[in-house]
Amino acid sequence: MKKLIKRLWFQVILGMILGVCFGLLLSPSAFALVSSETAFKIAPWIALIGNIFLALIKMIVIPLVLSSIILGITSAKSVEILRKMGLIIAPYFIFSTLFAVTLGIIITNLINPGSYISSNLINQISVVNVEVEKEVQNISIPDLIVDLIPVSLAKAELSGNILAFVILAIFAGVALINLKEEQSKPLIDLAKSLQAFSMKIVEWAMKLAPYAVFGLICSITIKIGFDAISSMLMYVFTVLFGLFLVLCYYLSIVYLVSKMKPMEFLEKIKEVQLMAFSTSSSAAVMPLSMKTAEEKLQVPSSISKFVIPLASTVNMDGTALYQACAAIFLAQVFAIELSFFELFILAITTVGASIGTPSIPGVGIVILATILQSIGIPIEGIALILGVDRILDMCRTTVNVTGDLTASLVMKRLVA
Ligand code: ASP
């Protein structure tokens, strides 16, 4: 038992269960042990460690992504191998994202979670939504595409546009590999040191993970209480079921390319999955994913150093599936019939949006606004799904990182 308590995964799960229990005890719309005023006052304090934890991770993502991609590219043995890997990985990412989106659309239409929402809850939406709306206005797909080129790094940093840093890092890496060693060495050494200190900070942040999960889940449960949770259960189930199917898809790909049995693969990658679950950030997990790919999955380091940093920032099938499910769910809630053409637009927009989603906690839902706008679903709906987003973020990030490791095995098979 003592051993179990020391394990991080156990502490995180315990944090989550205790978070829900305490949250329900305090929530005005559940057991209401304290007055609603007191409950809402203490909720931000309970969430404090969690929010510090998320802020630490967000703070460190840009140096981590930048240095890891530069090091990944410069570690390639030759420009030729680099080109070959790039040409295989891009269509692979697009295909698997499209697969996840299509799956999301199909299962949400079959399960129809929107029909379980009471009209009472829909009426409350516009009241809670002001904050979300402020955050999401002005995001459109063309803007996202233009923002890809980091004309101003300060602007990209301010708007949290990590993809811009990915593009910069790719240019920097490819340029460095084409320079003489004495010219490239200082910058490569700088990248190594940048990566090392970022990893140290992630390591510190991880010590807070169980308390963070407890605090965040508890404060959310206080805010949304029983009613909201129960009517959202079908939606949560739909997303989780979809994520499970994406996981099965990965397991079959892994078996096809490496003959590794599903349980064996899951056993080898469990620490990566747990860290993704606790941090809700594919980027924060990236160093551990690289280590796991090399040491446990025997992926050559020239491949893992290239594929994992890139995959963790652009390959997000879990997020893509979630965004598709959420969009269809909200269409059902608002009784909006989507034509085949609109579903097509939804699929394409979601593929682009998930690629552009930064690999940090909780942004999949912000980018979702773009998708909703593209097919005319009121973005007020985001307020409805915000309450259960933390737990879905943890689960979709777990699937995202599994996809990154799967991609490294695919590359190993095709390139090595
Ligand atoms: N948290 C997710 C990730 O880092 C992104 C999202 O919000 O969907 O993979």
The main sheet comes to: none
Number of strands: 0
Q: What pattern of helices and strands is seen along the backbone?
A: HHHHHHHHHHHHHHHHHHH
Mean pLDDT equals 85
Specify the structural class: mainly alpha
Helix percent band: over 70%
Uncertain segments are: 126-136
Span of the ends, CA to CA: 43 Å
* Approximate strand percentage: under 5%
Large-scale geometry: globular
Ligand kinds: aspartic acid
**Please, how many helices?**
19
Tell me the Rg in angstroms. Answer: 21 Å
Structural topology:
Blueprint: H1 2-6, H2 8-26, H3 36-46, H4 48-74, H5 79-111, H6 119-128, H7 130-136, H8 141-146, H9 153-158, H10 162-177, H11 181-258, H12 262-279, H13 282-295, H14 301-314, H15 317-333, H16 340-356, H17 364-374, H18 382-386, H19 389-415
The structure holds aspartic acid (ASP).
What do you see in this structure?
The structure is a single chain. The chain is mainly α and 416 residues long. It contains 19 helices and no strands. It has helices spanning 2-6, 8-26, 36-46, 48-74, 79-111, 119-128, 130-136, 141-146, 153-158, 162-177, 181-258, 262-279, 282-295, 301-314, 317-333, 340-356, 364-374, 382-386, 389-415. The longest helix has 78 residues, at 181-258. The radius of gyration is 21 Å and the shape is globular. Mean pLDDT is 85; it is low at 126-136. Residues 280-282, 316, 319, 357, 359-364, 393, 396-397, 400 line the site of aspartic acid.
